[in-house]
Amino acid sequence: MDNKIISGKIVSAQIKEQVRAQVVSLNEKGIYPKLSVIIVGENPASLTYVKGKHKDCAECGIISDNIAMPDTVSQAELLAEIDRLNKDDSVHGILVQLPLPKHINEYAVINAISPEKDVDGFTAINVGNMNIGKDCFTPCTPQGCLDMLDYAGVDLEGKDVVVIGRSNIVGKPVAVLALQRSATVTICHSRTKNIAEKTRNADVVIVAVGRAGFLTGDMLKPGAVVIDVGINRNEAGKLCGDADFDSCIDVVSKITPVPGGVGLMTRANLLKNTIKSAENCLKQRKN
Ligand code: NAP
Fold this sequence. Notes:
single chain; 287 residues; alpha/beta; Rossmann fold; 5-stranded parallel beta sheet; 10 helices; 42% helix; binds NADP nicotinamide-adenine-dinucleotide phosphate
C-alpha cells in the first residue's frame, strides 16, 4: 500500500530544504525574504492556516509578519494597509487570508495587491498570465498537485485528466496547468451529468469538491492516479479528503493521502513563491 501513496510530507520537505538553501544564498546578497500576512477577524480555520504559514516561514528562514485586523475593519482601511505593504521594499510577499467578512469586496482587496508581491497567485494579472502561459506566481494548491504528480513520475502529456470542481482557487487553475502539460482535460462540476462515466476513463483524477468520500473506487479505472485536494471532517470529526481512501486504494496506482497530502504542498508553494519574489527583487537590483 505504501508504494501507492504520494506523500506530501516527503515532497514538501524537499521543497523546504531547497527554499532554506535559497534563503541562505539571498541573505548573503543582502536580501531577506519577507512575507506579510493579513488576517481579518478570528475565523478558527483561518487562524490555524495562518499559524501554519508563519511556522513554515520560520523553519525556512523567511521573515513573516502577521497583521491582524478586526472583522469590523473597513474596506478602505484594509486597502490602505495593502498599499503600505505594496510600497514597503522589505516585503516580498503579501497574502490576505480568505474568506473576508461579507462587507468587504474580496475581488477589490485581492487585486489591490501588487502582482509582483501576489504570492498566492490570485490577482487577475497573475491568473491571466498563468492562462496564457507567461511567467507568473502560480496558485499554491494547483501547483502543489502538479509537484506531487512530478514527484510520482506521472507525465501528463497525452493523458486523460478529469478535474472535479471548478473553483477559481483550485479546479480551474489546476485544469489550466494540466492542459499546459499537454493533458486532455475534462472539468466536472455540480451540473455535470454522470461524473463516474468520465472518471472511469481518466488516467488522472484531481478531486476538489469539498465533500468527504465523494470519489469512490468504483468510479476509477484500474491504475488511475488520484490527487485528493479536499479537506473535510467526516462524521467522526476526523480529517479526510474528497476521495474515499479505503475503496480507492485497491484500484489506484497512486493516490495522495489526507492529511499529509496536497495541504502540505499548498504551504510549501507559498514559500517557493515568496522566494521567487525575493529573487525577482535581486534581479531588478542587478539591472
Ligand atoms: P468550492 O469553491 O466550494 O468549489 C467546489 C467545487 O466542487 C465547485 O466547482 C462545485 O461545483 C463542485 N461540486 C460541489 N458539489 C459537487 C457535486 N456533488 N458534484 C460535482 N461537483 C461538485 O471549493 P474549493 O475552494 O475549490 O475547495 C474544494 C475542496 O478542497 C475543499 O474541501 C477545500 O477545503 C479543499 N481545499 C484544499 C486545499 C489544500 O491546500 N489541500 C486548498 C484549497 C481548498 P459548482 O461550481 O457547480 O458549484
